[in-house]
Write a structure and sequence with these properties.
The chain is an alpha/beta fold. It has two domains: 315 residues, Purple Acid Phosphatase, chain A, domain 2; 50 residues. The protein has 13 helices and ten strands. The two termini are 32 Å apart.
Length: 397
Amino acid sequence: MRTLIISDLHLGGNSATDVLRRADVREHLLAVAAQADRIVLLGDVLELRHGPMRLALAAARPFFQALGAAIQGGEIVLVAGNHDHALIDPWLASRGQEHEPPPLGVEQLIAPEQASEAYARIAGWCAPARVTVAYPGLWVRDDVCAMHGHFLDCHLTVPTLERLSVGAMSRVLGRHPSTFASVGDYEAAGAPVFAWRDAVARASRTGNALNGIATLNAWQALGGGSSRGGSSRGRGRGVRDALALRGLKRRARSTARRGALLAGFPLAIAALNRAGIGPLRATISRTELRRAGLSAMDEVAVRLGLSGSYVVFGHTHRTGPLPGDEHTEWTRASGVQLINTGSWTYSAVFLTPTPGESPYWPGGCVAVGDSGPPEVLRLLCDQTHAQLMRPLSPADA
């Protein structure tokens, strides 16, 4: 059986970075999907933190219909992540209503209509493909386990908003992540945080603090990325001079704010560590994001008994391993071999001018056969920035 694993589509996001909403981009994936027996959508398939679920479902419907038609009688497995945890939350809430539920394992297989009304609706759109819901992961093969990867936030040393949120919840529960030993432990720390964010987004579109833009801005200000400015070429001299003066003032204010942020950031991290939220490090470079993410995912895999397996995950949007990556970062001392699907979102802050060069370039997926190592595929490296940034058109519906 050939399985294709795709993660982090974030369909329905209000920033229009979800490239699979574009019909021409979908064709690149559908051509490969048609050759598979099973498609695993490994979490964050929908973006439910940007606004009401109905909006995300409406935006995602053409994709599900096209995918179901492409795979024909094959199987689609839907896995929830942290950004679409609301899809599986009804099933999780119903488990203990009458009796003490059994402990959650690495894989629970659920019929869509038993998981949630939204999953049942999605399953209808995917016809004639068969649809199964799995949570929090799926054994793709005896030696290959796939899960979204959001549990890794509990062990991350980079102070992301998600990491701080689950750290604070762990403090409330009186359970430090260093004691976690089961899926239930991770759910207890993460599910209340996800539910709160989902509740905020249920009524209307959310602001920058919750939709990720503020986090990216802070990451840039702290030196994690660089912004791209526009050009005033072709404008009159008076206009250019006015724009130049305005730009100087804006940069001066920005420099002052950035200086204050840089000076205060290590102190804030030290305070969080003293409060028991950590361990956290005051380093947020791309290198640190990769290193810390892989280390945290390995920690999760070991605690859930996955040592000696291939563990395919998404969540961090960083495809790998790729040529040139450090082998020992991905093949861990624990025996876990980590593989990241990458994402299908266009996030300019993480990209370089050369298409396909950045490991965060969208279009990654992982193919798993009956034997041998899982294979990382990158399906959009022939696309340009302009093609992926193209505004949505009626043809995309």
